[in-house]
Design brief:
The protein is 48% helix and 22% strand. The chain is of the alpha/beta class. Helix 1 links the parallel strand 1 and strand 2. It is globular, with a radius of gyration of 13 Å.
Length: 129
């Protein structure tokens, strides 16, 4: 049985730590949680997980990151792995970037920073349903 993975991508460690605490409190050990601090690191993890036969169910990505913005990352991921549910997490994305990601990457949802724990959990649950 392949492990079921949720991947979080954000260039701020404190954001990743906060996400980790909130999702573990709610989902416990139901899923494997992976964390990347850049689009490049996310791709490395995706390749590694894919080669291990893991099933990446959902990706939550920040929008504003160095080198590769979240909309670019999610669109690239969608081109190779259209079945992965994609969520953007942002304090700064413009509507154009969000709409482009909705259209080109089948964006499930966009969470705005600061998010509420309830909003995060509901978004993940609706994506995983």
């Amino acid at each position: 049985m392949s492990k079921k993975v949720i991947l979080f991508v954000d260039d701020e460690k404190i954001i990743l730590q906060s996400l980790k605490a909130q999702i573990k409190k709610h989902f416990g050990t139901q899923y494997v949680y992976e964390f990347a601090e850049s689009g490049e690191e996310a791709w490395e993890l995706i390749e590694e997980l894919n080669s291990e036969g893991a099933q990446i169910l959902l990706i939550v990505s920040d929008w504003l990151m160095p080198n590769m913005r979240g909309d670019e990352l999610l669109i690239q991921i969608h081109q190779r792995f259209p079945e992965i549910i994609k969520v953007m997490l942002t304090g700064q994305a413009d509507e154009h970037a969000i709409n482009r990601t909705r259209k080109e990457a089948n964006l499930h949802s966009c969470l705005h920073k600061p998010w509420s724990e309830q909003e995060l959990i509901q978004t993940l649950q609706s994506g995983l349903a």
